[in-house]
Specification:
single chain; 353 residues; alpha/beta; Rossmann fold; 6-stranded parallel beta sheet; two-stranded antiparallel sheet; 40% helix
């Protein structure tokens, strides 16, 4: 990774999105949808910041992998998905869980390991799941959930429903065998599945372009499986929403899978234990200008949304997150009697032949 201060980080593939780009100001998205996108964007940002604060207070046991800076991807897809659709995410799945409607208080309580958490305190930060909302799990095994998403899509196809499975994954996953196996099978079987690479430029601590043979780790592999190369600005909720609508409609029509590379950037480190000192300061500063929250705020102002209305949304979300925090903190720690429950499908720990 170049450290020369004269190095032009805007030329580092993939190119940085332009924060002054106004081409989507007149996008075919009604104002009601855009306000909903802004509200969700605020919820994901404020929730993640609160989770970070609770971690620093030693209330979150273990570590967390937050999506600070990357919230536009979950926001755009969350708005486009139907209630019956399926979402599969990585251990960085908080934003996707909330985007599908997971209760923010129960999500925080889960990070705190409390019995009022969405999984009773057993899943923690890396395994958020809410089947009733279509959030089919956060997976710590890199790439594994892409194959599981195929299974959900195959189920929908066999049952004749219009459900679509969406699998979100990081750029490092594109160098994992499961990524290629899942793509190949999805195309062969023409499955209603959408694969979304959240390319934040780093696979944990290593720049993705330092160990990948192509500039765009997902999109440049699409052609090998007969898919169109799709690269979008993953920091723009409108761009993500429009791409999501197109890909989901394609899947529902029976036209098979799509592969989308959403270029983004995480504000912090890989996890809360990572100070991210390996990233050049010039790169970090360049991406701060592309933060999805203030950039989208400015777009809404340009299209005529009053500042006061956006301020009201921000304050309403803040009140919701405050209430969610108190709910989470009030939860009791699970008792020992719950330790061996929900281990198997019948709720018990006894093996069944």
């Amino acid at each position: 990774m170049p450290t020369d201060p004269a190095y032009d980080y805007a030329l580092r593939p993939p190119r940085l999105p332009d924060p002054e780009d106004r081409s989507l100001d007149d996008a075919p998205i009604d104002q009601e949808t855009r306000l909903a996108l802004y509200r969700k964007l605020q919820e994901l940002r404020q929730w993640s910041k609160r989770a970070h604060d609770l971690f620093l207070q030693n209330l979150v046991k273990g570590t967390t992998h937050l999506s600070l800076g990357m919230e536009a991807i979950a926001t755009g897809f969350g708005m486009a998905l139907k209630p019956g659709d399926y979402t599969f995410a990585t251990y960085r799945g908080h934003a996707h869980s909330l985007a599908r409607g997971m209760d923010p208080g129960k999500a925080l309580a889960e990070l705190l390991g409390r019995e009022n958490g969405v999984l009773g305190g057993k899943g923690g930060s890396m395994h958020l799941t809410d089947v009733e909302k279509g959030m089919m799990g956060s997976y710590a095994i890199i790439g594994a959930h892409l194959c599981i998403a195929n299974g959900a899509a195959w189920s929908a196809k066999m049952r004749g429903t219009d459900q679509v499975a969406v699998a979100f994954f990081g750029d490092g996953t594109t160098n994992i065998g499961a990524f290629h196996e899942a793509l190949n099978m999805a195309v062969i079987w023409k499955l209603p599945v959408v694969f979304v690479c959240e390319n934040n430029l780093y696979m944990e601590y290593t720049p993705i372009d330092a160990i990948t043979a192509v500039p765009n780790p997902a999109a440049d592999r699409a052609g090998a499986y007969g898919l169109d190369p799709i690269i979008i600005d993953g920091n723009d909720p409108d761009a993500v929403y429009l791409a999501a609508v197109d890909a989901l409609e394609r899947a529902r029509r029976g036209d098979g899978p799509s592969l989308i590379e959403a270029v983004t950037y995480r504000t912090g480190g890989h996890s809360r234990a990572d100070p991210a000192k390996y990233r050049p300061e010039a790169e970090v500063e360049a991406w701060k200008d592309r933060d999805p929250v203030p950039v989208y705020h400015q777009r809404l102002l340009r299209i005529g949304v009053p500042e006061a209305e956006l301020g009201d949304i921000t304050r309403e979300v803040a009140a919701t997150i405050d209430a969610a925090t108190e709910f989470a903190k009030a939860g009791a720690h699970p008792g020992e009697e719950t330790l061996m429950t929900e281990v198997w499908a019948d709720g018990g720990s006894a093996w069944r032949n």
